[in-house]
Write a structure and sequence with these properties.
9-stranded mixed β-sheet; single chain; 14 helices; 395 residues; 14 strands; TIM Barrel; Enolase-like, domain 1; alpha/beta; 2 domains
Length: 395
């Protein structure tokens, strides 16, 4: 069996783009993967075009060797653009291998440890709406709930749509309302917050210190991750567990965070870290340090399908992020239609608060290529946020 083509399929789904990659072979077996570099899809398409030129004619079953060739056969190796392309290819090759051998992908990874993949939901409301969101999710059986930071609009009211973010304003409001959530909704569920690397060390420490102990079970990406030393400093200032790693584009980026125990939940993203080949190495490394995986999954159904297989195949797993719940759905567009349902006629479906582990060969997902070509890529730019003084800050 030989690779005959690598097709980038950038497609608009809901309110954002997804970059699906199809790897075809001369035996008619194909595999699907997905790139994780949301918002910079065209850069990844360029990398895929470079990789295509020397991958055509290769044996798709030589997955590990291909991973090494993709990574090492260039002077400027690594980086988020190249690894996002490499991740998609690696995932697609595992899909091909599973189909060729007539087994689910998790069988290629050592078999399954669990029958269902537990998930966590996100409550995105602000103020009293946050309490309503948490109560709604709890009513539907969710026991692990993530929240987000609050921000003010120009008139002093809550907003999630503005372009002004003042960290000190946000941490005061957010800490206040998270405390109220615990008071009204109880302590018998896991609650965390994703601060989306919007704070610095002092702001994060102040935020954590404003709440009673036990309010939060984890804080995700409170500061940027370029400097592990910054997380070392932050670790000394708070006892709330960290969830870090969604932007990491190799095992080497995970290295200091695992070895120095700067994360308590590894937010690994299959579509950024290098696909299954790299993710399984990180998973074993994390297991040796008693760190559970808590995979990042804000993309599309291909990412979800792939991550389900990884989650089934590792012993050290906590919860999978899912963004299609009673409080949000990333696949709904302005028309109110779930764009992903028709685009991916075969895909994993949530049952209650978890995904059943699939039994179909490969990843167990299919794409309608004709429909994908009709839902063309659209230019989309992440929000460019500012402080009130006009300076640029993180989104």
């Amino acid at each position: 069996m030989k690779i005959t083509d690598i097709k980038p399929l950038p497609v608009w789904v809901g309110s954002r783009n997804q970059l699906v990659v199809k790897v075809e072979t001369d035996e008619g077996i194909y595999g699907l993967g997905e790139s994780g570099l949301s918002g910079r899809e065209l850069a990844v398409v360029g990398a895929l075009k470079h990789f295509r030129e020397f991958l055509i004619g290769k044996d798709p079953m030589q997955i590990g060797r291909i991973w090494q060739e993709l990574y090492r056969s260039q002077y400027f190796e690594g980086g988020r653009v190249l690894l996002a392309a490499q991740s998609a290819i690696d995932i697609a090759l595992y899909d091909i291998a599973g189909k060729a051998l007539n087994v689910p992908v998790y069988q290629l990874l050592g078999g399954k440890h669990r029958d269902v993949i537990p998930c966590f939901a996100t409550a995105s409301g602000s103020g009293a709406a946050l309490i309503d969101d948490v109560k709604l999710l709890r009513k539907h059986g969710w026991n692990v709930i993530r929240t987000g930071p609050m921000m003010l609009d120009h008139q002093g009211g809550f907003t999630s749509e503005g372009d002004i973010f003042e960290p000190r304003e946000s941490i005061a409001m957010t800490a206040k309302w998270l405390t109220k959530v615990r008071e009204e909704c109880g302590s018998d569920f896991v609650m965390g917050i994703d601060y989306h690397h919007r704070l610095n060390i002092a702001e994060t420490a102040s935020f954590c210190q404003r709440m009673p102990m036990g309010t939060l079970d984890f804080i995700e990406e409170p500061i940027r991750d370029e400097s592990p030393e910054a997380y070392e400093a932050l670790r000394k200032l708070t006892d709330i567990p960290f969830a870090v790693g969604e932007e990491f584009a190799s095992k080497w980026q995970f290295l200091p965070f695992i070895e120095k125990h700067l994360t308590d939940f590894a937010r690994i993203d299959l579509c950024n870290v290098g696909g299954f080949t790299e993710a399984m190495k990180v998973a074993g490394w994390a297991e040796a340090h008693y760190i559970d995986l808590m995979p990042h999954n804000p993309l599309g159904p291909v990412c979800t399908a792939a991550t389900i297989h990884m989650a089934a195949a590792v012993p050290n797993f906590a919860w999978l992020e899912v963004r299609v719940t009673q409080t949000e759905n990333l696949y709904y567009g302005q028309s109110g239609i779930n764009d992903a349902e028709a685009l991916f006629p075969v895909q994993p479906l949530l049952v209650g608060t978890s995904f059943p582990v699939p039994t179909a060969p490969g990843l167990g997902i299919e794409i309608d290529e004709k429909l994908a070509s009709a839902q063309a890529w659209k230019f989309w730019e992440a929000p460019h946020w500012k402080r009130r003084d006009g300076s640029v800050t993180n989104w």
